[in-house]
């Protein structure tokens, strides 16, 4: 292969963008809190969910809360997009990035895939890991997630993480020291940052 051919192949290769589902694409928190309210009479809003480990706020064992979180995917029609512009943004990014859905969601694959399709989320690959901690070892160039622990682990690998701002990651985000973590308040910022990073390369 000539130098010119190698250069052409390199230009055609897309970078990999790994995108989380729960709390990043899908607002599972709203129906989850509704289930918690119905089951335990604990009424809190999404803004009140200032810790990733919600059991510390509602005073219900984590195992019980996770069962309800899993139950949210029994009624996927109640799960809305975190931002209605997400499909268009990812579609724009798809011309430059290979989009991998990288999730530890408690929903089953068929249900989550259908939800993605129903909400017109474009992607090239669907990867369901057992635990969020496994994401740090995934071969991607850029990650989008709402879990600060995931963001910190990925950033430690010298990879860029776009942390979607949520009530449960505000405290950690405010005190972050890793340069590779960029806090994104709105999804449209994600598109701008990624495209700008490509233009600089």
Describe this structure in words.
With 201 residues, this protein is of the alpha/beta class. It has 9 helices and 8 strands. α8 links the parallel β7 and β8. α2 crosses α4.
Could you list some keywords that capture this structure?
201 residues; 2 domains; 8 strands; disordered N terminus
Please sum up the structure shown:
With 201 residues, the protein is an alpha/beta fold. The chain has two domains: 3-27 and 80-199, Rossmann fold (3-Layer(aba) Sandwich); 29-72, no CATH class. It contains nine helices and eight strands.
Topology:
Blueprint (H helix, E strand, L loop, with lengths): L2 H10 L2 E5 L6 E2 L1 H12 L14 H4 L3 H11 L7 E2 L4 H8 L3 E7 L5 H10 L6 E4 L13 E4 L2 H8 L4 E5 L5 H5 L6 E4 L2 H13 L2
Parallel strand pairs: 1-4, 1-6, 4-5, 6-7, 7-8
Antiparallel strand pairs: 2-3
Structural class: alpha/beta
Oligomer: single chain
User: In the CATH hierarchy, what is the class of the largest domain?
Assistant: Alpha Beta
CATH topological fold name of the largest domain? Rossmann fold
**Strand arrangement, largest sheet?**
5-4-1-6-7-8
Q: Estimate the global geometry from the Cα principal axes.
A: globular
Order of helices and strands: HEEHHHEHEHEEHEHEH
Biggest β-sheet description: 6 strands, parallel
CATH homologous group name of the largest domain: HAD superfamily/HAD-like
In terms of DSSP E residues, the strand content is 15-25%
Mean pLDDT score: 92
């Amino acid at each position: 292969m000539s130098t010119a051919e190698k250069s052409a192949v390199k230009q055609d290769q897309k970078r990999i963008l790994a995108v989380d589902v729960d709390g990043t694409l899908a607002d599972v928190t709203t129906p989850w809190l509704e289930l918690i309210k119905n089951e335990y009479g604990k009424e809190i809003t999404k803004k009140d969910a200032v810790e990733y480990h919600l059991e510390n706020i509602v005073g219900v064992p984590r195992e019980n809360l996770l069962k309800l979180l899993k139950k949210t995917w029994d009624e996927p029609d109640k799960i809305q997009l975190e931002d209605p512009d997400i499909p268009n943004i990812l579609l724009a990014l798809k011309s430059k990035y290979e989009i991998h859905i990288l999730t530890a969601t408690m929903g089953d694959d068929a249900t989550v895939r259908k939800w993605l399709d129903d909400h017109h989320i474009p992607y090239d690959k669907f990867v369901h890991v057992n635990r969020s901690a496994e994401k740090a070892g995934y071969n991607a160039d850029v990650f989008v997630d709402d879990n600060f622990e995931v963001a910190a682990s990925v950033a430690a690998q010298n990879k860029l993480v776009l942390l979607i701002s949520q009530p449960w990651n505000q405290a950690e985000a405010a005190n972050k020291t890793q340069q590779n973590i960029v806090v994104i308040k709105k999804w449209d910022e994600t598109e701008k940052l990624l495209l700008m990073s490509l233009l600089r390369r």
